[in-house]
Amino acid sequence: MTAPCLIIPTFWTRRRGRISDNPLLAYDHPTPIDSEGTLPACLRSLQEVEGLGKVVLIVAATDPAIEHQAEDRVREILEDFPDIDALVFGPAELGSLHRRLEQLEFSDMIHGVSLVGYGAVRNVGLMAAAVLGCDSVVFLDDDQIITDKQFLVRATDGLNERLDDGRVVLAKTGYYTDEDGRYQRHVKPAFADMFWRKEDAFNDALSIVDAPPRIKESPLAFGGCLTLHRDMFVNVSFDPWVMRGEDVDYVINARMHGGDVFLDGEWSVVHNPPKLPSEALQFRQDVYRFVYEHRKIEFAKSQVDLRQVTAESLAPFPGNFLGASVTWRALLTALLKGFTTRREGGLYFRIARVALSEAGEYARQNCNNYFDFQRRWPMLMDRIWDDIALKPLFAGERSMDRTTITGRFPVIRDE
């Protein structure tokens, strides 16, 4: 198998770190445009990795007004790593991709392949891998450090191989650790979380890491330590409408279409995320996410071409948050946090309204969008695979005059 294409999504925000009101743009911890953030350390750790091939850095921003600045910032950082064969994918490359999709009569797919939202950004990475003709793709996040020189070797261990029960491993996840090698987050539950207990469910799900065999079916996935074989990623896309947790959601998508995601107990990466700018807004994203996924699973039951996936089959995480009780549990949790949290109490009360009505309305409006998008995905990937029109650009063989892009015109000064 050839070297996998390594995809690194990187998210950026304004200097003051203002958080977007658009739920699809409220990323967990985007990097301020006037800082380097965690990306240099991530790239530095890549220099020691054996078998490193093409690296694609996908640049997304919380505000369209800074997307070109963010792209420039990433290019500046990348200049310190000339030995890495990297492509920076920003708004200019996205424009070329979208124009090609229009030429191929896939303009209806453009919304789901963009730089807005976790799922859409990851779909861009899958399309880049398809254009480059990659046999496999590995996702890494920009706040992670690789300490194992054999990281990519382990990433493809067992990939496209058949297990004893006859299933083929086409999607495999590792797991995150801290610098001391711990992979479970031990957080004492707060009183306000009595109806939520997300950390407990997550820890329970991770108990399979040390259990035999090395590679086993998993109810969750880690988007920063995830490898997909081409037979998986050309057939199953990420969901552009899920607010966060698109990696765990991919497990659901894979199962619906007859596949599985497996966890490799010997493959991991060090995760060093910055401090969250707002725990309340992360909770808001989770409310949208779980209400949407509950609706999505229910809607899928009416689709005769899909394998049925139940919340129970995904327990303890995310299954414990995909049942019909998720709405009232989110509402009570938001109210309890509003009464017990000083700094973000008002925001939690507003999130209670989200849980009561807005998240449900979002789910009703969008739960069928993914299935319409997904049904066209294999056809799109087949047309774009090794595409002769886009490959020179994605391979770095064709340059682009970026000064002609809106927002990049040079300043004209009077003599």
List descriptors.
single chain; 10 strands; 10-stranded mixed beta sheet; 415 residues; Spore Coat Polysaccharide Biosynthesis Protein SpsA, Chain A; globular
- Compute the number of helices: 13
Task: Give the CATH topology.
Answer: Spore Coat Polysaccharide Biosynthesis Protein SpsA, Chain A
Main sheet characteristics: 10 strands, mixed
CATH architectural category: Alpha-Beta Complex
- Give the low-pLDDT segments: 403-415
Provide the β-strand percentage band. 5-15%
How many strand segments? 10
Radius of gyration, taken over Cα atoms and rounded to an integer in Å:
21 Å
CATH class: Alpha Beta
- Secondary structure class reads alpha/beta
Report the helical percentage: 25-40%
Order of helices and strands: EEHEHEHHEEHEHEEHHEHHHHH
How many domains make up the 3D coordinates?
1
Q: State the separation between the terminal residues, measured CA to CA.
A: 59 Å
The whole-number mean of residue pLDDT values reads: 90
- Form type: globular
How would you describe what is shown here?
The protein is of the alpha/beta class and 415 residues long. The protein has one domain (5-275, 371-394): Spore Coat Polysaccharide Biosynthesis Protein SpsA, Chain A (Alpha-Beta Complex), CATH 3.90.550. 37% of the residues lie in helices and 13% in strands. It has 13 helices and ten strands. Strands 1, 2, 3, 4, 5, 6, 7, 8, 9 and 10 form a ten-stranded mixed beta sheet that branches. Helix 9 packs parallel to helix 11 and helix 10 (326-340) runs antiparallel to helix 11. It is globular and about 55 Å long. The termini are far apart.
